[in-house]
Write a structure and sequence with these properties.
mainly beta, 5 helices, 30 strands, 12% helix
């Protein structure tokens, strides 16, 4: 029997468009599906027709949802429309929540024992203030230069500090040429030019001192070249060229000669303090001069710093959240982490509260040298300290209106006691090279010669009358004079009431 198709069939066959799939259509489809299968062939046709109808109905229901001008249903919790995926676009996956920012991990610290890997300065990728090329003194006519100062060295001869031309500011150092002997004293008309040694305005601060660095007997010439700028030149003599100064090691940094590993041969510790403290160690291995970057070894690069305290022979790694103290190993090229309590001087405060016990003398140990020192009292503040009284470190006492000052015989540095009224204090700036001391107040930099750097420490045993202890020196000579000043300050004693 031929079935009559409903009126809506032709409409559905061409697509419903904006029309809806009505209840009449649904009932008709359901009726056809439920009809008994009278004949096998017609039953198959009916089932196929029903299946096609259902598919068409489902597609027609979905098409309106995919039309561009038909809004998609919104989630229950937001007014924003949800994106509708296209056939060419995969279904969106829920975005993972952004992880909470974690705290910055603390900087790594070095091990309790840090083995030092010495290397050649020329092969290192970093920039360091050292020159190691060999330079022989060049013989020049003494009359061709303008000598500013002559330094006599007993048993050796004289050194000339000069400029090449009138009006020049660059200082040079030269050694008077003798009759072919490194120890001759006969004055001649010639010099052996050694090289640049600072600026003219610092001519009075140039010094020549005996040296045994790296086991070579010779001399070290020191000269300032500006604020926090210094030149160190080491010279020695060789049998092949008698009387001619040879330089194969120069540093544009503060330096100390110290036998770190106690093998009888001094190394050189170089310190840079432009922004943060940087320290290198230079050491001879047979005929090779090698070095190690201590900041790198202790993982204390910027903004951290390293300071070498020569008076205690310790290296301080100043990290953002801690201070680590290291000592060089005995006959071992390594740095050992030490307990701060094992350090002789209290690292929390430079000036420890101690009473004067009546001793008139004391031996100060500074950079491996011993200085016999004598007690001097400051009755104005009821304190005193021990001042060296031998060699070129002799100090003299001067009375000031605001206290006492103790200064070296050549006027290169001084230690002053002053009343600590805040209204009288200058503007101070904390410097990394003294940050280890809890009683360090700050530093004043001035353009006044000869003391362009003044370090202030507070001594507040008497809370009603605190004292400022001021260390004054040329900033360029910090490595030379400051260790002694720190040792003197560390031995300040208060005078008990009778």
């Amino acid at each position: 029997m031929k079935e009559t198709r409903p009126d809506w069939y032709s409409i559905a066959k061409g697509g419903l468009g904006d029309s809806l799939f009505t209840e009449e259509m649904k009932r008709e489809v359901g009726r056809i599906v439920e009809q008994p299968r009278a004949r096998r062939r017609s039953g198959r046709w009916i089932a196929g027709t029903a299946l096609v109808a259902l598919c068409v109905a489902a597609v027609l229901l979905i098409i309106p949802l995919a039309r561009p001008d038909s809004p998609a249903p919104s989630p229950a919790v937001t007014d924003e429309p949800s994106p509708v995926p296209s056939p060419d676009q995969p279904l969106p996956t829920p975005e993972s929540p952004e992880p909470e920012p974690s705290e910055t991990p603390p900087p790594p610290i070095a091990d309790s024992e840090v083995r030092l890997a010495y290397e050649s300065p020329e092969n290192h990728s970093g920039v360091y203030p050292v020159e190691t090329d060999r330079v022989e003194g060049k013989r020049i006519d003494k009359a061709s230069v303008r000598i500013q100062r002559t330094i006599e060295v007993e048993g050796t001869g004289s050194f000339a500090i000069y400029v090449r031309e009138e009006g020049d500011s660059q200082l040079y150092a030269g050694m008077e040429a003798s009759g072919g002997s490194a120890t001759g004293h006969r004055e001649t008309d010639h010099l052996y030019e050694i090289g640049p040694i600072g600026e003219l305005v610092y001519a009075d601060d140039v010094s020549v001192t005996p040296s045994s660095a790296f086991g070579l007997s010779g001399f070290r010439i020191f000269g300032p070249c500006g604020a926090n700028c210094v030149v160190n030149v080491w010279i020695h003599f060789e049998e092949e060229t008698p009387g001619v100064p040879i330089s194969d090691f120069r540093l544009n940094a503060h330096a100390q000669e110290v036998d770190l590993d106690e093998d009888g041969i001094p190394e050189v510790v170089a310190t840079e303090t432009f922004a943060t403290g940087k320290v290198q160690i230079y050491k001879k291995f047979e005929d090779r001069l090698l070095f190690v970057d201590v900041n790198e070894a202790l993982r204390a690069e910027e903004p951290s710093a390293v300071v070498y305290e020569g008076s205690q022979r310790i290296f301080l790694a100043l990290l953002p959240d801690r201070t680590l103290t290291y000592r060089y190993g005995i006959r071992e090229d390594l740095l050992k982490l030490t307990d701060e309590s094992s350090v002789e001087t209290d690292l929390d405060r430079l000036i420890v509260e101690r009473a004067y016990d009546g001793s008139k003398s004391l031996r100060l140990e500074v950079d491996g040298e011993a200085y016999e020192s004598t007690w001097f009292a400051n009755e104005t503040f009821s304190v005193g300290t021990y001042l060296p009284n031998d060699g070129d470190k002799v100090l003299r006492k001067i009375v000031l209106t605001d206290g006492f000052t103790y200064t070296t015989e050549n006027g290169s540095a001084s230690l002053t006691f002053k009343a600590a009224g805040e209204e009288d204090l200058p503007e101070l700036r904390k410097e990394d090279d003294l940050a280890i001391y809890g009683d360090y107040m700050g530093t004043e930099f001035t353009g006044n010669a000869p003391y362009n750097r003044r370090d202030y420490f507070i001594y507040d045993r008497d809370a009603n009358r605190p004292i400022c202890v001021v260390l004054q020196y040329a900033g360029d000579s910090a490595s030379v004079v400051r260790p002694l000043l720190l040792a003197i300050a560390a031995n300040i004693r208060y005078i008990p009431e009778a």
